[in-house]
Hints:
By secondary structure, the protein is of the alpha/beta class. Strands 1, 2, 5, 6, 9, 10, 11, 12, 16 and 17 form a 10-stranded mixed beta sheet that branches. Strands 20-19-18-21-22-23 form a 6-stranded parallel beta sheet, with helices on both faces. A 3-stranded antiparallel beta sheet has the order 13-15-14. Strand 22 (678-681), helix 26 (687-694) and strand 23 (700-701) form a beta-alpha-beta unit. Helix 11 packs across helix 12 (352-362) and helix 11 packs across helix 14 (388-407). The two termini are 42 Å apart.
Amino acid sequence: MQHARRRPSTVSPLTSEESALCDAICAKLVYGLGRTPEKASLNDWYQATVLSLRDRLVDRWIEEQHEIRRFRRKRVYYLSIEFLIGRLLLDTLRNLRLTETARRALAAFDVDLDALSKVEPDAALGNGGLGRLAACFMDSMAALGIPAYGYGIRYDHGLFEQRIEHGWQREYPEDWLARGNPWEFANHDTRYTIGFGGAVEYLGGNDATARAVWHPAETVLALPYDTLIGGWRGRHVNVLRLWSARAASPLQLAALNHGDLIGASAASMQAEAISRVLYPNDSTPGGQELRLRQEYFFTSASLQDLVRRHLEEYGTLDTLPDHAAVQLNDTHPAIAVAELMRLLIDEHGYGWDHAWSITRSTLAYTNHTLLPEALETWPVELVDRLLPRHLQIIYLINWLHLSALKKAGHTDAALLADVSLVQENGTKSVRMAHLAFVGTHCVNGVSALHTDLLRKTIFNNLARLTPTRIVNETNGIAFRRWLFGANPPLTNLLVRTLGEDVLDDTSALSKLETLIDEPNFITLYRNARAENKERLAQLVQTATGVRIRSDALFDVHVKRIHEYKRQLLNILEAIALFQAIRSAPHENWVPRVKIFAGKAAVGYERAKLIIKLINDVAAVVNADPVVGDRLKIVFLPNYNVSLAEQIIPAADLSEQISTAGMEASGTGNMKLALNGSLTIGTLDGANIEIRDHVGADNIIIFGMTAAEVAERQRTRFTGAEAMSASPRLAAAVDGLAKGVFSPDDPNRYGPLVEALASYDRFMVAADFDAYWDAQRSVDRLWRNPLQWWRIAILNTARMTWFSSDRAIRDYARDIWNLSLS
């Protein structure tokens, strides 16, 4: 290509594959972006590289769609409010086995691939484990050759960019689309109309199950943006289809012509607000309405899309369950039950019973939480105002559901009230989790404990009435991203030791067990961690200004900030440790760096106060000359996938200390253990299964069980009781109460102190002494390097079951009725 100006002297001759990629990138740069290599910025090179890779994915995607239609293969449709996919460049290069090819091709233009990869922003499409699980599942479905669409929302600004200002979390819009997104296709020839409000007209007389016509008062357009997800070695490609909201009439010319600039664009602003941000603050009626609008918007667009595709290929919706498996990732898309019924009855003329059979056979539901406040319940008034036809359908589903139970002899009023889709006490509300349970053929929990608690708590009576409905599918993680991508030093060691087959068959990791007593391998494994820790130490200093020892124990607590995840317990232990070091400075304390990261929801004031507390304690501890570098505390802002990829491979200790019975599963625990971090945790979520796989001697478990927590909650246990029995806890809380860590505002942490002393819902005070003792056992282990690294290697060796490939195989077998080739 005549525009290409390669650097001839310092790069050895390119192979034919490298030369072809080099030419492809240059062609995209010149003809796609209108830049010459001499004038191109790093972002231009990034865009050109992505476009050249996207072409390769498109070629395979087109081939595969012909194969799917030809062999009438079943598709999975994965509906999720979040897809936390992170950066895609290195992930795609790795899956296509083109990383080094791209490195040399770009080097021919004096462009560094590592620098280029940092130009890519993290896609602001999620917040925590829910979205990352969805991303791992998309990766695994592509790797395993399961035809799939992921459906979600294309958020303009995501959740928020977190900045720490004077110790407080401040929220700013995430501007990840400012320079466009070269991975996506704007597929605007396909668009769907989404209705809100209005009135319903029945067409079948007085028959409650008759067809109706919904006349919405407002319509919004759903426009799709497609991102191709390439599977391992590029053998399969799936699609992540994200919906963006647009007004049906973007500008009211009459209002504009009368000089009403705000009125002219009001409809556009209201419509586009739907896909503006993730999780708008729902503590206000307006925020609550926007949340429901978001959930219905993407669910309706997704169902309309898959129904259209199925009709084009098969001509009838009778066979929808045979060729489509729709998985609802948590309760956000539960309105799918009513929406699919509406589409089948009102739009396609099906009778009620036939529509109900198709709906239940097509849909399945994953529950991710037991917390009552996190289960979706919508006031009937709100549903009636926004989705009047859907409320009619929900009422009818509920009437038929309760009538069938009464006919079967279940007439107890309390039981019927508990299993009703409508909550009558207090604000009359629709229970979306109950709707998802009744309207799907399968409900799954995401860890063995969580699934057991689903049966015993929120779905107790429903589970007793339909005992085979709930199954367990323990979460998993994409090893390709979280080991092979995030941890190159360890991956290189694994390939040298076990051979390249480990990249295709992660069960080969189990062979590491034979090396746990090999001094040379232990040294190499430890050196890989040291390399990662040195890199993280540099990042910490750049981000926070705090200099930390890379040879200290890196104690990592990275996850969404929430009271049940108990960052408060961790920082209280840090205060107690700080006080202990100051009291006995000449003792042989283990040098420790406590690393926190995570975002608090915009309206979650208690979680924001905990972030401030962490930063206030850090300021005092890090400046204390007596403590010195024996204890450092840092809070890294704006936790996202890219930051996690730098923290996790460097972690020595993984904090998984949620209140037992409240964490559904967790996936951070899996990522950290896979990379050789020792887990300190409660018997909660997937910690139990991690213990079962790595061995009870290779994990540090403390605290109450879920049953013991439930009993303490029943008796309304108070933190004051724990403090009276624990001088160490009392001293730590006293430090908060007296303003030791907030001299500018001594009463700042009064609400936390009061909460700790009163009803201890999250068992922070109750578990404190057990947590302190567990941390001192960690110290003892750290002082025995041979034992520490033996356990670390065993963790990596025994985590193979926690692959998302295994999880997807289980979903395919147990829920989707899908055979793998």
